[in-house]
Structure formats: C-alpha cells, structure tokens
Amino acid sequence: MKCRRCRAGAVIELRRHNAAFCRDCFLHHCREQVRRAIDDFDMIAAGERVLVAVSGGKDSLGLWHLLRELDVDADGLYVGLGIDDYSDSSGRHARDFAHRFGLKLLEVDLPADYGFDVPEGSRAARRAPCSACGLSKRHLFNETARAHGYDVVATGHNLDDEAAVLFGNVLRWDASYLGRQHPVLPAAPGFVRKVKPLVRLGERELAAYCVLTGIDYIVEECPMAAGNRHLGYKEALNAIEERSPGSKAAFFFGFLEHAHSRFAPDAAGERDGLSPCTACGAPTPGDVCAFCRLRARATRVPVTVEHGSPEAGG
Amino acid sequence: MKVVLRNPRRDLELPAPRTVDQLLRDLDVVPESVLVIRNDTLATRDEALSDDDIVEIRPVVSGGAA
Q: Where on the phi/psi map is residue A169: left (φ > 0), alpha (ψ -120 to 50), or beta?
C-alpha cells in the first residue's frame, strides 16, 4: 500500500478518504484537518488564551500536541475524578506529557477539592457514572477557565464522539440537544467558548497520531464507561462504516450543513434568563446549579449560600 | 505469531501466514475499531504477518458521552 501524497510505503489506510498515508504525510493530514476545523468554525482567534481539557487519553493528548504543532499556545487542565487506579494512571499520563513537552498543566481534584468522587456522585444522585462525570467535568472546565482568565476551552471530542452523540440525539429526537450540537459553543455571560478542534478526525486517526508521534496515552478504558449507551452507538456506527466508508462523516457534517439550523432555535433560549448559582456563582436556570446539587447529595453537606439569596436571584 | 489483545489484555499464539485483514476477520474484530501494531509500527490491512511477529490489536473506541 502506497502513500497517496508521496508514494512511499503507507503506515495507515483511511477508507473514509479513500487514501493511505506514510508517517509524515499522515501527520500532515492530521494537522491540516485540525487547522481546517479551527478555521472553518472560527474556533480560536489570534492571541486568545486556550485551555485544553486533558484526560491522559489519546484524544486530549493528541489535541494538545496538535495545537502546539499549529502554534496555538495552550495550557492543559486535568480533572482528577477519583476513579481508583484509572484516575491515578490517567493523571500520570497527563503530567508526564506536560513535563515532556514543557507545558503548563492545571489540576483540579474532585475528591480533594470538592469532597466526592464520580462513583459516590453517581450513587448519591442516582445518575449513570458517565452522567455524573460529564456534569462535573463541564462545570469544572468552565469554572477553572473563568477563574484563570482563559478565553476558550478546547476538548478532545472527535468525529466518532460527535457522530455517536448525534446518533443518540436523533434516536430520541431530542430537539434541544440537536440544537446545541455544534463544534463551537459560543461564549455567553458566565460561560467561556467551548470548541472541538478534532471533529474532522476519527478516533482511529487520533490513536495512530499518538503512536506515530510517541505520545504515551492511557490505553485502558475507563471502568465506569463499560457497556454504556454511547459505546453501543459507536459500535453500531463502526459496523455501518465498515460496510460504507465515510458514513460517519457524512452523517455528522450533513447534519451541520442541512439540519442544525432547524434545531438551533430549540436551544437558543436555554442560556437566556440564567442567574448565578447561589452556592458557586455558575450560571443556572434555578437557584442552585446541577453540580452543586450533585455535590450536596454526594457529600450530604447542604448547599451553602455564598452568592446571594435565591429570592434575590443572585 | 504472538497476538496481544487489550481491554482486557490477552495473549494468543496464532499460526501465520495471514494478512492483517485476515487476522481481524478471524478474530471477528471490526477494523474501524482498532489499530494493528506489528513490532511497534503500524500495519496496514494488506500486510502479511509472519511467525516471528508480535502483533498488538489496540482498541481505539473510548469513552463516556460527556
């Protein structure tokens, strides 16, 4: 198999692109896909401060590496979730990467800083572990970015992640989530901009990028994620992709081109009328934000009002 | 050849020759969901594997929906 660009021996084939690439041309391909995503969706402007959400996995470490390759100055944020050995290992991978490349890594530890871990939060709130985890990470990414003056939070969501989320949202016809599903979530009062620069790369490409650049990422899967619905969607989409290469990209980018605008009004009003959480100050439609409610249930410590009374709305 | 599967880790001894594509089919693995790493380098589907090879089949599908 030959490289499509230079005709050298290929190391990876990408059936979605009807192409194979040698190492150097594949790395070029990855950089170009990320550059194009950033440009096409106006993700990051010159001079903006970027915070990369880093888990120690292939996507986030690959993203951090790719941003630096594209001369985007980015610091990292690692959130310790208290998932036993998995969190120990993922944190080690994130720290080792930052140390190796001389990058700044901020750290937040859910058990040490907020008094509960993801398994406890999941049990106490009767939420699926991935739900409690996602809620906590979204809150802490935004809170930390605001506290340290970053303009943008970049996450490692890739094409497979986005196609699987879209698949689930379509199965349920969740109009609000469909309206919100986009590579850029703009800044709003209390929210920094969130961007997904990897939407043009599949997770197989990210894993290959890490192997070929010598990035040591955590290969083990999170034990809490086993058997979740999202993985089932990915399995189904990969079976389709195997028979019909390019299906995942056509599904996701076709949605953005033809359907997203139809659902956007369903999500447009969600950020209107928010007021600061009475405990932490984060924007929320109620008195207390979902993260502080989760924390209160998990720690059995009532929410402390620090940002005005509920009656005062902040 | 030695074949290493991950999550959970299992080591298999399988006879060569066969291509990467044949190996994945024999193991009922969807190629889109893995990388095949032969002797520490990536291997494409058409590559022939030999008895001396150490082949890792590394899953690439990850995660929660957050």
A: alpha
Contacts of B34 in chain A (CB under 8 A): 204
C-alpha span between A69 and A28 (Å, rounded): 10
Each residue's pLDDT, cut to its tens digit, for chain B (66 residues) gives 999 999 888 999 999 888 999 999 999 999 999 999 999 899 999 999 999 999 999 999 987 544
- Please name the residue of chain A whose CA is at the shortest distance from the CA of residue B62: A221
Q: Where in chain A is the domain with CATH 3.40.50.620?
A: 34-272
Which residues in chain A have their CB less than 8 angstroms from residue B37's CB?
A: 211
Distance from CA of B54 to the nearest CA of A (A): 16
Neighbour-count burial for A191-208, b at 16+ CB within 10 Å, e otherwise: bbbbbbbbbbbbbbbbbb
Q: Which of A44, A37, A38, A9 shows the shortest CA–CA distance to A23?
A: A9
Residues A118, A147, A63, CA angle at the centre, nearest 5°?
65
* Domains defined for chain B, CATH in brackets: 2-59 (3.10.20.30)
Interface contact B38, partner A, CB < 8 A: no
**Predicted structure pTM score:** 0.94
- Compare all CA atoms of chain A with the CA of B58 and give the residue at the minimum distance: A219
- The residues in B 8-27 lying below 8 A from A, measured between CB atoms, are none
Which of B32, B40, B46 best probes binding to A when mutated, by most A CB atoms within 10 angstroms? B32
The second-level CATH assignment, the architecture, of A34-272 is 3-Layer(aba) Sandwich (3.40)
Question: Three-class SS of residue B17?
Answer: coil
